[in-house]
Amino acid sequence: MLEAFKEAQIAASLDEVPIGAVIVKDGVIIARGHNLRESKQSPLLHAEIIAIEEAARVLGSWRLIDCTLYVTLEPCAMCAGAIVNARIPLLVYGAKDPKGGAVDSNVKLFEIPNLNHRPEVISGVLSSECSQILSSFFKNKRN
Predict the structure, then answer these.
(1) Which residues pair with 11 in a beta bridge?
(2) What's the pTM?
(3) Staple partner for 31: which of 51, 80, 84, 126, CB 3.0–4.6 Å?
(4) 130: buried, middle or exposed (CB in 10 Å: 19+, 13-18, 0-12)?
(5) Alpha-carbon 41 to chain mean position
(6) What is the CA radius of gyration of the chain?
């Protein structure tokens, strides 16, 4: 999670919403991502999507079995859907997202009965740090 947090810091330095992600396979980071929505003007360039695409390239497969995704904020519906579609078995995230989270906070996408894949979820890892970087970012934006 510390590496995902470093990615969030990179996003903040680019004036992007500070969310970072890494994907690990066999104890090795194979992909990294941080938000690039503003700089690339793309609604799709969330940290998780960038990391998932990079991991698929590295592995030569869209099936990211035996991988763990670490992300600093609870995934949105788009990213949760990508996690399901990529068959990622374990999601570890930091802060809950009461407005847009689709894992535990709102939609609870992984609990839909007919999904063909349901990842295990570990939440709250470095939660206060992940929340703080987001709070500071938006406080600075408001000022």
Answers:
(1) none
(2) 0.96
(3) 51
(4) buried
(5) 18
(6) 14
Cross-strand pairs, 122? 92
What is the tens place of the pLDDT at every residue in 65-124? 999 999 999 999 999 999 999 999 999 999 999 999 999 999 899 999 999 999 999 999
Q: In what order do the strands lie in the sheet with 90-95?
A: 28-34, 20-25, 67-73, 90-95, 120-123
Give the tokens for residue 132. Answer: 């703080």
Distance CA 143, CA 38 (A): 19
111 among known catalytic residues: no
Residue 94 CA to residue 130 CA, distance in Å, equals: 6
Q: How far apart are CA 8 and CA 89, in angstroms?
A: 23
Q: Which of 16, 48, 74, 120 is catalytic?
A: 48
| β-sheet bridge partners, residue 21 | 33, 71
